[in-house]
Write a structure and sequence with these properties.
28% helix; 81 residues; alpha+beta
């Protein structure tokens, strides 16, 4: 299956892309996705630990099963002033 991952702010800057098509095995979860991103981009691990996830426009907490075609948005902490 393939999910679309959208990245914003510092996460986008560290990965170098704002949108990625990510192939995952059937039955993969959001935790599997985050683990794969940590393996491919070790520099984002601290950000992923404090980021929120939304799957298909709905915030999720914990580990959720992903499905082919899902859109996963990773939202890192944002500050400003």
């Amino acid at each position: 299956m393939t999910v679309t991952v959208l990245c914003f702010a510092q996460l986008r800057d560290r990965i170098g892309d704002s949108e990625m098509a990510v192939p995952l095995p059937n039955g993969a979860s959001s935790g599997d996705l985050l683990g794969m991103l940590k393996d491919r981009h070790p520099q984002v691990e601290p950000l992923l630990a404090v980021s929120r996830l939304a799957v298909n426009c709905a915030y999720v907490s914990g580990d959720v099963e992903l499905h082919d075609g899902d859109e996963v948005v990773i939202i890192p902490p944002v500050s400003g002033g």
